């Protein structure tokens, strides 16, 4: 009987090992798929941001505002900051 239990125990251990290895491989595959999907989406977002920046620069050039790095005029920015400081005091 002990020999039979020992063989059965070894078989159960082998079956469990195969099951766990398969499970880990499936998880690895799913994580890799998700990772690839996330990286692709981040790349797409980066491309869209670059296109948006180019469109904004094109519009600024059309309007003759080329060279201004801020969407707000610096003097307007300072007056807005002063208003915020006065409101918080």
Automatic annotation (TrEMBL):
Q: Which residues form a coiled coil?
A: none
Q: Please give the Pfam families that the UniProt record associates with this protein.
A: HSBP1
Record field: compositional bias (Basic and acidic residues): 75-89
Q: Which InterPro entries match?
A: HS1-bd
* Annotated segments matching region Disordered: 57-89
Similarity annotation: Belongs to the HSBP1 family.
- The protein's name is Heat shock factor binding protein
Organism of derivation: Hibiscus sabdariffa (roselle)
């Amino acid at each position: 009987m002990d020999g039979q239990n020992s063989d059965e125990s070894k078989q159960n251990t082998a079956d469990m090992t195969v099951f766990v290895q398969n499970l880990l491989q499936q998880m690895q595959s799913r994580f890799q798929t998700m990772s690839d999907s996330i990286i692709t989406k981040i790349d797409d977002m980066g491309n869209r941001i670059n296109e948006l920046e180019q469109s904004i620069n094109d519009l600024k050039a059309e309007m003759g505002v080329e060279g201004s790095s801020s969407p707000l005029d610096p003097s307007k920015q300072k007056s807005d900051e002063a208003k915020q400081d006065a409101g918080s005091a």
